[in-house]
Amino acid sequence: MRRKAACAPQAAAQIIPKISFSAMSTSYNPQTIAIIGAGKIGEAMIEAMIDARFFKPEQILVSARRSKRIEQLEEAYGVRGVSNKEAAAQADVSVIAVKPQLAGQVLPELAPALGPDKLLISVMAGTTLKQLSDWSGRNCPVIRAMPNTPLRIRKGMTALCGSALAEEHHLGFSQAMFNTAGRTQIMDEKLFDAVTGLSASGPAFIYIMIEALAEGGVKSGIPRNLATELAAQACLGSASMVLETGKHPAMLKDEVTTPAGCTIDGILKLEEGGIRVTLIKAVEEAARRAKELG
């Protein structure tokens, strides 16, 4: 099996723990999983699960619209390519990762192969538990997951909720699976539109901030590549400080802001530009659009 070359980790990179089924509850121990619509997010899940020893390659089935895509995944990871219907029939767990607009077409085709002994997990934005349950026959436990793209480098954030038929062990399994690629939180589905606006869309907002910070560095004489690295590492380090110290961001900001120093002058310009209101409105607008799509 030929695997893709991985980037060399930095010294301070987080070590991904190896997870095995023996460490999980024995009440639910699926042996096969299918990624239906294996695009970038699906591939990231495959790689994370294999690297964490959550599933072996031979336990993973994949389907995609293009046969060439299936061949690429088979060659890269040693998984087995099948059709959508074969995937749902043979797998204990089916992860549906097709485009949301195709869900109403794909899920009814899978419904005959689904049932109380199967688990359906959706990573499609804007598709509700009710829609997923209706389209899949209403007799299968369903988990709705909302990951974000940093999942591709094991730094993702995934929100999870379950249908009425989903039990604690279904949520526990799903949480353990997505933990191989970052962090997870189980929450009420009513928050999912807001989660989409904040967590799923948020990386794009952060990229704009990194780009703008780097431009400020270039304006001040720093070479572009170096300015981008400095800005990105500042964001990474700041985010890690929030998560690892548990301190409120305002407290951490105050630790950087010395009286009559340069930071407070920079903050004043940010406030003049309305950065707080702009970011709040960006999240609010993205959440509104997510609700429309659902």
Automatic annotation (TrEMBL):
Which Pfam families does the UniProt entry name for this protein?
Answer: F420_oxidored (PF03807), P5CR_dimer (PF14748)
Positions bound to NADPH? 84
The record's Gene Ontology biological-process terms are: L-proline biosynthetic process
Catalytic activity as recorded in UniProt: L-proline + NADP(+) = (S)-1-pyrroline-5-carboxylate + NADPH + 2 H(+); L-proline + NAD(+) = (S)-1-pyrroline-5-carboxylate + NADH + 2 H(+)
Q: Which UniProt keywords apply?
A: Amino-acid biosynthesis, Cytoplasm, NADP, Oxidoreductase, Proline biosynthesis
Cell location: Cytoplasm
Q: What SUPFAM superfamilies does UniProt report for this protein, alphabetically?
A: 6-phosphogluconate dehydrogenase C-terminal domain-like, NAD(P)-binding Rossmann-fold domains
The entry marks the following residues as binding NADP(+), namely 97-100
Annotated metabolic or biological route of this protein:
Amino-acid biosynthesis; L-proline biosynthesis; L-proline from L-glutamate 5-semialdehyde: step 1/1
Residues annotated as domain Pyrroline-5-carboxylate reductase catalytic N-terminal: 32-126
Where is it mostly found? Answer: cytoplasm
Asked if Amino-acid biosynthesis is a keyword of the record, the answer is yes
Note whether Aminoacyl-tRNA synthetase occurs among the keywords.
no
Show the GO cellular component annotation of the record.
Answer: cytoplasm
Tell me where in this chain the Pyrroline-5-carboxylate reductase dimerisation domain is found: 189-293
The record's family statement is: Belongs to the pyrroline-5-carboxylate reductase family.
**What biological function has been recorded for the protein in this entry?**
Catalyzes the reduction of 1-pyrroline-5-carboxylate (PCA) to L-proline.
Name of protein: Pyrroline-5-carboxylate reductase
